[in-house]
Amino acid sequence: MKRLLPGLLLWLCCLPLWANSLDEVRVWPSEAKTRVVLDMGAAPDFSYFTLKNPDRLVVDLADTQQKVKLPMAVGDSEVLTKIRNSTPKSKGGIRLVLELSRSAKAELFALAPSDGNGNRLVIDVAGKGAGASAPSHSSQAQTPAPKPVPITPPAQGRDIIVAIDPGHGGHDPGSIGRHKTYEKNVTLAIAKKLQADLDRIPGIKAVLTRSADKYIGVVERADIAREKKADILVSIHADSIGSSQPRGASVWVLNTSRANRVIGKWVDEKDRHSELLGGAAEVIEDTKQEQYLAQALLDMSMDHSRSVGQDIGSLMLKELGKVTRLHKDRPQPKSLGVLTAPDIPSVLVETGFLSNPDEEKLLANSWHQGRIAGALATALKEYFTAWPPPGSLFAQQNGKVHVVRSGESLSILASRYNTSVSAIKAANGLKSNVLLVGQKLTIPSS
After folding, report:
1. What is the pLDDT of residue 282?
2. From 196-210, 271-285, 419-433, the region with the lowest mean pLDDT
3. 409: CB partners within 8 A, 6+ apart
4. Whole-angstrom Cα distance, residue 367 to residue 364?
């Protein structure tokens, strides 16, 4: 036994250790494109290129074990005929060859785990009328792809749009204090002061969902913010309760159960996908087989929006605590209709209790309203300075903009731009190391 042990250990050490696995290959042909979805055990490390005579798309997966049987014939696609293996690019990897009936454009992007779905690599091959592919590599000599060049931002970056939503209005007065202070008037006054404060900050523009005493439905408020292409929706309210004792400000964000119900509803409303997801809606087909993609994209969008709302809410409470009493010192999750836009981060600010006589007097006071507005403006400026949206003036002041290309990782970009992985993640609000091809990243100054 002792003689066998060293040999056994050597044999075990020589076994391949895969960082990933290809678990399943699924194909959905359509007239616009043929989609291939690779179900992966972890986030894929991939690269790809095209070949001519015959036309092929070659996809390399590094450090991946293949658990699915190939070749696979594709019968219903007018562009994709077969998926097979070829000699791997490197030891321990997989090379997939997608045999094409003609030259065609291809787009590849990764999807992170979401709602029961694991990691996926999505391959879209353009259908009829979508145009030819980019120049391909010859089969004799594969020319390496040119090094990515950082995109130079325009001379003047865009403004960050903050949509301010004064709660209630018109025939809906909201809460009414003992001294007949109407919530709808308090929220509009604070909102206008906040708008003025934000408009004085270069690179930020504030818009109001209502600028007068009129009623606007809950869903319409988010629609107005979307129409204005808002980066954040801030809804202003004043609290009330049966007791006169509670007082203080609080910030509310969307809770998980409400978010899940909203996502489920929007997955069924396919006509709203483009409106809610912008360019990402192009990857959603109107078929039952691809509902999970709509679910995944909406889920990721909602997760991002809730995360941003939590971060901004925390900064708001920190600043509000300097000018007024706090009722809650952390953002609170709640099922609130105005917070349900998956594509726009949102927070609801309760500025105080109108049911508390002392706080009612404060909320009706223009000086106190200005202090609350100033605190909210300071918090928003602090957040967007740390995490500026790509293409904004704030982003240009803090660094460069880079568009992710195939094969790039956070560590590669950090080395290229003489910065750190953590700094790039912080500048872009990233919660993981997964990058998507075509994703725009703000690169902070070294």
Report:
1. 39
2. 271-285
3. 45, 433, 435
4. 9
Instruction: Count Cβ atoms below 10 Å from residue 87 Cβ, excluding itself.
Output: 6
Query: Which letter does DSSP use for residue 130 in this model?
Result: S
User: How does DSSP assign 143-159, residue by residue?
Assistant: PPPPPP-PBPPPSSPBP
- 56 and 99 in contact (C-beta within 8 Å)? yes
Residues 6+ apart with CB under 8 A from 124: 33, 34, 35, 36, 106, 107, 108, 283
Enter the tokens of residue 125.
């091959």
User: Which tens digit of pLDDT belongs to each residue from 29-82?
Assistant: 877 788 898 989 888 988 988 888 899 999 999 999 998 989 998 887 889 999
Beta 204-208 vs 232-239: how paired, if at all?
Answer: unpaired
Neighbours of 146 (CB within 10 A): 7
Say if residues 30 and 285 touch (Cβ distance below 8 Å): yes
pTM of the model: 0.53
Nearest to 119 by CA among 46, 47, 56: 46
User: CA 46, CA 62: separation in Å to the nearest integer?
Assistant: 6
Sequence-separated (6 or more) residues with CB below 8 Å from residue 255 = 333, 334, 335
Please, are residues 247 and 355 in contact by the beta-carbon 8 Å criterion? no
Residues near 135 by beta carbon (within 8 Å), at least 6 away in sequence: none
Q: What's the CA gap between 411 and 413, in Å, rounded?
A: 5
